[in-house]
Amino acid sequence: MHILEIIEKKKKGVELTPAEIGFVIEGYTKGRIPDYQISALLMAIYFKGMTPAETNALTMAMVESGDQIDLSSIEGIKVDKHSTGGVGDKVSLIVIPLVASLGVPVAKMSGRGLGHTGGTIDKLESIPGFNIELSMAQFMENVNRYKMAIVGQTGDLTPADKKLYALRDVTATVDSIPLIASSIMSKKIASGSDAIVLDVKVGNGAFMKTLEDARKLAKAMVAIGNGLGRKTVAVLTNMNEPLGHEVGNANEVREAIEALKGKGSKDLLQVAVSIAAQMAVLGEAFSTLEEAKEAIITKIADGTALETFVLLAKIQGGDPETIRHPERLPQAKRSIPVRATSFGYVHEIKAEEIGTAAMLLGAGRETKEDVIDYAAGISLEKKAGDPVKEGEVLCRLLTNRENYEEAYQKALEAYVISADVAKPIPFILDVIGE
How far apart are CA 279 and CA 74, in angstroms? Predict the structure, then answer.
């Protein structure tokens, strides 16, 4: 077996065998195959694609390149949730306590934010004392005992994917459906859960800009998950505006707390309840989504959902009273109103621009080394469909920085305002199952 022969096969569109794919991934991970040859193969894959069998084989080869977490000692069907990344996406903060309150174990590994997208780990660390670096023994114990735990992703999972992603980034091969799908799913498979719900974001603030492309990615990921023995469902959700009213870290935690009380943004609640219901059904707590949604709404109404979030903070070293009294979360010294320069209706809020503006205020990272200001962010006072008068506040910049002019301009330009009445934007666009 030789790498040149494998490149030649894929260049001609011939299906690669699992043995050939395994040979490539192992050779690249261990440094036996150089970047330039893998770059050639990636470009061939970009143009010729991969069959479902090839994509499954690539996923498993990346899973087997590093550690695999064994969750078999945890009772019940372990359900994981993954978002493809968006702006204002605090859904994990809501669904972890919701699903755990229904008795379904959630063993969650999450990442940090980079660029215009936020990270769940960063948001939770805005809660004083919250520890995301649990030992694996403590992680397992928390899930067994309390049905929930969340930690940062270990550096030993899917090292092949880390190497491949870095190479894809510099060879213009990032936007390949089989490469994206295998990258995401390899981490989920290696994390050890039995079932996976994927929140595939669609729109200007997401990686997948069109519904057509998002469906292709969702179908590919669902096929991988089910093909490798993990029950998998994908929910396609709208990211043509930020999710909810808050973008940042501490302010997103505050909004998640409000959602767990049944208050706040309609789009955030609908997305969170839909995803939690899918997780509950995959975890076999309920046989139908309608039953699951009814139980979730009850858990919110009777205060169980919020108290479960309080418990999550407590078992991970955080101050539980911060959840009951969110005014204790970090707050920015400055709140700068961004005012409309025309009248009409909000037709769109460019999520990527809002995310970038929040990053410029200190809420995100331009590089991995940047330090986050948990108090920084943006509060949206107007959402898509809302009427606006000239001079009215569209959003507020929350920052401790003195220089916020660039962020102000980006936030202002993110709002698309027209004299025509705006049509309602659906929040759930599609669901892809088995």
Answer: 17
Nearest to 239 by CA among 366, 118, 106: 118
Write down all domains in the chain, each with its CATH number in brackets: 3-49 (1.20.970.10), 79-157+166-325 (3.40.1030.10), 331-418 (3.90.1170.30)
Catalytic-role residue among 81, 163, 187, 231: 187
Half-sphere exposure of 276 (CA within 13 A, CB side): 32
Annotated catalytic residue 126: no
DSSP class of residue 249 equals S
- CA atoms within 13 A of residue 402's CA, in its CB half-sphere: 0
* Residue ranges, the chain, pLDDT below 70: 113-118, 154-155, 368, 434
Is residue 161 flagged as an active site residue? yes
Active-site residue (options: 10, 78, 81, 82): 82
Could you please report the per-residue DSSP string of 288-341?
SHHHHHHHHHHHHHTTHHHHHHHHHHHHTT--HHHHH-GGGS---SEEEEEE-S
In this predicted model, what pLDDT tens digit does every residue of 122-169 receive, in sequence order?
999 999 999 999 998 999 999 999 999 999 876 688 999 989 988 998
DSSP code, position 367: S
Residue tagged active-site, from 176, 182, 183, 186: 183
Structure tokens at 63: 């899973």
Give the whole-angstrom CA distance, residue 330 versus residue 204: 29
Residue 115 and residue 205: Cα distance in Å, rounded?
Answer: 12
pTM above 0.90, yes or no: yes
Tell me which of 80, 122, 161, 267 is the catalytic residue: 161
User: Of these residues, 123, 168, 382, 410, which one is catalytic?
Assistant: 168
Q: 379 an active-site residue?
A: no
